[in-house]
Amino acid sequence: MNRRHFLHASLASAGFALMSKPLWAAMQQAHSQMPSIPLKIAADNLPLLAADALPAGQPHAALYRLPNLSSKKGMVSATLTAEPYEVELLPGKKTTVWAYNQHIPGPLIEAFEGDIVEIRFINKLAQPTTVHWHGLPVPSDQDGNPQDAVPVGGERLYRFSLPKGCAGTYWYHPHPHGDTAEQVYRGLAGLFIVRAKDDVLAHLPEQHLVISDLKLAADGSIPDNTMNDWMNGREGQFVLLNGQRQPLIKVAEAQRWRIWNACSARYLRLALPGRKIILLGSDGGLLEKAQQLDELLLAPGSRAEWLVAGPEAEVDLMAMAYDRHKMGAVAPEQDIKLATIQFIQNTSAQLPERLRSLPPKRIPVAKKRVVFSETMSMEGGQHSMQFLVNGKSYDMQRVDFVSRVGDTELWEIFNDSHMDHPFHMHGMQFEMIDSTLKGKTSPAPWRALIDTFNLLPQQSARILVTQQHKGLRMYHCHILEHEGQGMMGQVLVK
Description:
Immunoglobulin-like; six-stranded mixed β-sheet; 5 helices
């Protein structure tokens, strides 16, 4: 019996009858040590809207840009407010979303390397929240850690500078412990681009594609997570691009696309069937050289930059089926159309041979090992899951590792579980060296700066990490439901 069928059967049983006594005892012990986080759980059979209920085919909507209120050169100043907001996605059906400045996706913040950023944040939610600047090299006390929650009705000023070399495609979202998943699936996520003043691709016009998913009940409301959502990570029946279902994107000249996977748990195996993907950049900016691919897998939280050009034609942007080894009774994976791309004339662009020069790899002076794992329990006849890091559930009061500013460290991340897990570290970009699966080690296919990457079951990866700021940093699975149930640790940088 495979793991999925076993788990599905166990939900209806009185316990894990097929498990060995030592394994069951170990799981009970781990469960008893896990901090109690009450979960909101919706019924699995809650009626949902049909997956084609939202209108499709509208012109691609540009992102709303957050106005810069500062007239000072080198300063970005703005106000960001998180609050409930009512929208009508379907005629006669009201949906209450949680949004930044009443926009979904949240506003795009743009700045240049060297700028100082000041964001006044106001919390009008009924829950404490934070703003985490995903991937940005900001000080720990400005990074929206769970320890720094802004209370209900409160506000704070986030202030940080953007160092040279950090140009890239970033985003921001809440990070309060236990409530991150809900706040994101109800709509709280925004975009952040840091630009280089010497960008070799600055002449290319840009398209911004924020891919998210949305679950809607039959009455138009956003339901709580089901037990399957908590186990596997939430995937809504609607996969949206800039808040739209299957929009129409017209391409009249070669373009630079910035793409965000802002989903809580959905993996995006992106493809333009019949055409190659020209990959220009990753989370932390441009690659050294452009790469030609048939497809690109973006894990939750990851970003990419593409060159989009070619002959006149109509092509679909697709998220191809991807098996990430979900648990329980789940529907088969399927291809999903994200958008229609109309190349309305032949387009081309000449790229420089070298897009960027990354600094030489430094020799690590310390090593750390992170192990992701899962356990299952039927304690008291109730099914529960645990998602652990190095055998422990997240504790805000515990420091798991200590590092030093400026030291380059070799981190080995191992996925000792039966499900894909994307690894993310706060406040920095790192470089992958290689990965190992089934005894075969493969070097990273190209040099890139990233802050999020996927690990297959029983796969390990080695990365080079150099912390530039003192303070507490989080590292965790970026399936938000797993992070919220304990798959997170902390490193104190001194």
